Amino acid sequence: MTQTLLTRRSALVGLSALVSTPAVAQTRFAAAKAYSTARRGISMLVMQRGQILFEDYQGQGQRFKGWELASGTKSFSGVMAAALVQDGLLKLEEVCADTLPEFWSDRYRSAIKVSDLLHLVSGIDGKDGRNFGDVPTYAEAVAVPSTKATGTQFSYGPVPFQVFGEMVRRKLIAAKTGDADPLAYLTRRIFAPLGIRPIRWQRGSDGMPHLPSGAAISARDWANFGQFVLAGGVHRGRALVDSTALRANFEASSANPGYGLTWWLPRAGMIGPGPRSGVAGEAVSLAGLGKLYMAAGAGNQRLYLLPDQDMVIVRQADGIRETMRRGAGDWSDQTFLSLVLGA
User: Minimal CA–CA distance to 30: which of 47, 5, 54?
Assistant: First the structure.
């Protein structure tokens, strides 16, 4: 048996014990909490089958206090796209130029599809020379040229998400939905039905919500969002998004096997957001834990979805600005998840 299969089997055996012996589970969760707290952790929550098994807050963390997700915000866009598909406002394989006619004059941008944009393989430079964390306005993002053919290179950064924001804004206006902007639509279609209330959401100088970063929500709300995604986008027996489009969130591109539509898919060959992020370094080890989807942000903000275990794990931490300057530091997703699962 290969080492990877042994690791995965260990994880699943550990989970079986976790479910059957609550005392042992709490010991594991406490060990994971100690690991997180020692690395600036302020909140940790473990949910399985929609039930909270463990919840803890330290330092500035509070049950009803929202915390900045940094790039963990990005994964909302993939789910919003699935809602737009259900409403007939979007197709993942439509060309962006149909909504952004500015793209027709560019031989590369005229070929970009929505799926290319959200896979971050559109050929548009994700950062466009900006400092890490700098987010352009929607107009600035739409003006960024493409220098490569679609699908040939993964380029992580805020620009594609702001382009997507402008696409959504124009579609909402054309359809006369009554939504003022993408965040209003996301709130009406997803957050409000789920009872999620972002504490704040940063906006740019154009008044439009930042889609690559800027959301601040509580650990419970982030976990509930994750549980909704694990449930296939179904809430109280009703599908709030297109199921096929939601599944596409977890299908990788050929340019990066470790990234779907705005979600990380840790596995061999994964290209991370940058050398200091620490996200890609353990991709092979994480793959040994079974299926894993992840929203990740600076400061090691994490939303882990483990479909095989029907489990959602949230970890929030202080030190976002410091991490952006210095890198992920001593945080290890593999160590943390192994402590939670007893793997």
Answer: 54
Give me 153's structure tokens.
Answer: 């290179």
C-alpha Rg value of the chain to the nearest Å: 19
Looking only at the bridges linking them, the beta strands covering 293-297 and 238-239 are unpaired
3-state SS, residue 62: coil
**Residue 42 φ/ψ, nearest 5 degrees:** -120, -20
Q: Give the CA distances from residue 130 to residues 125, 214, 222, in Å, rounded to whole numbers and listed in that order.
A: 10, 17, 28
Confidence of residue 129 (pLDDT cuts 50, 70, 90): confident
- The pLDDT value given to residue 3: 41
Distance separating alpha carbons of residues 295 and 169, to the nearest angstrom: 24
Contact 206, 137 (CB under 8 A): yes
For the record, the structure tokens of 205 come out as 């100088």
Task: Map out the domains of the chain with their CATH numbers.
Answer: 1-68+264-343 (no CATH), 71-216 (3.40.710.10)
Is there a contact between 39 and 300 (Cβ–Cβ < 8 Å)?
A: yes
* Sole residue written with tokens 């977890």: 250
* CA 311 to chain CA mean position, Å: 16
Q: Distance (Å, rounded) from C-alpha 223 to C-alpha 310? A: 12
Q: Report CA torsion sign: 102, 107, 108, 114.
A: positive
Do 19 and 29 meet the contact criterion of CB atoms below 8 Å apart? no
Distances (CA, A) of 274 to 22, 114, 157: 38, 23, 10
Mean pLDDT value of segment 269-281: 76
Which tokens in the block code for residue 277? 């992020």
Q: What dihedral do alpha carbons 80, 297, 251, 47 form, nearest 10°?
A: -80
Task: Tell me the pTM.
Answer: 0.90
154 vs 86, 113, 161, 260, 332, CA distance in Å? 27, 14, 14, 11, 24
The alpha helices in 101-157, defined as continuous H runs, are 114-119, 138-142
280, containing H or E segment: none
